[in-house]
């Protein structure tokens, strides 16, 4: 992975929400994530400079597709770069859309939604700073 590219860590936490009397198939799970952009400094140093930490991306659109490729949901990151959505158990792709001011489009990330799982997909955007 290119060290100059942004790594957007999208921490996804799953929490079961099955109403009383509902079948397990009806259960949905809440996923929360964070969208970031980087690098924000022209030189990446080791150890990392805290003032050069990746920045939150506001307004990033993420399309969620099911295993057949059909769009099931869209979510947009807030001012803090956070997003939340609900999905049923299954296999999905998180497909980041282009963001103005960032280079290219990040590759899709596979998501497996299941009870009790902690999913931490990584989405990569590039600020273009070198």
Number of separate strands? 12
Q: How would you sum up the global shape?
A: elongated
Strand content: 35-45%
Describe the sheet with the most strands: 4 strands, antiparallel
Structural class: mainly beta
Provide a count of the helices: 0
N to C succession of SSEs: EEEEEEEEEEEE
Strand order of the largest sheet: 7-6-9-10
- Segments where pLDDT lies below 50 for 5+ residues? 1-23
The residue-averaged pLDDT reads 78
Gyration radius over CA: 16 Å
Helix content: under 10%
- Spatial separation of the terminal alpha carbons: 15 Å
Write the layout of secondary structure elements.
Elements: E1 8-9, E2 12-13, E3 28-34, E4 36-37, E5 55-56, E6 61-66, E7 71-76, E8 82-88, E9 90-96, E10 109-113, E11 118-119, E12 122-123
Antiparallel strand pairs: 1-12, 2-11, 3-8, 4-5, 6-7, 6-9, 9-10
Describe the structure.
The structure is a single chain. The radius of gyration is 16 Å and the shape is elongated. It has strands at 8-9, 12-13, 28-34, 36-37, 55-56, 61-66, 71-76, 82-88, 90-96, 109-113, 118-119, 122-123. By secondary structure, it is mainly β. The strands form five sheets. Strands 7-6-9-10 form a four-stranded antiparallel β-sheet, with no helix packed on it.
Feature tags:
single chain; disordered N terminus; two-stranded antiparallel sheet; mainly beta; 130 residues
């Amino acid at each position: 992975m290119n060290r100059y590219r942004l790594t957007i860590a999208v921490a996804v936490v799953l929490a079961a929400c099955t109403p009383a009397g509902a079948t397990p198939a009806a259960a949905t799970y809440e996923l929360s994530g964070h969208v970031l952009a980087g690098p924000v400094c022209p030189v990446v140093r080791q150890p990392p400079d805290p003032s050069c930490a990746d920045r939150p991306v506001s307004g990033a659109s993420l399309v969620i597709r099911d295993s057949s490729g059909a769009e099931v949901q869209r979510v947009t990151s807030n001012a803090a770069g956070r997003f939340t959505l609900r999905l049923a158990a299954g296999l999905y792709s998180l497909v980041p859309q282009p963001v103005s001011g960032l280079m290219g489009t990040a590759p899709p990330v596979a998501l497996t939604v299941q009870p009790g799982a902690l999913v931490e997909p990584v989405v990569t955007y590039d600020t273009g700073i070198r």
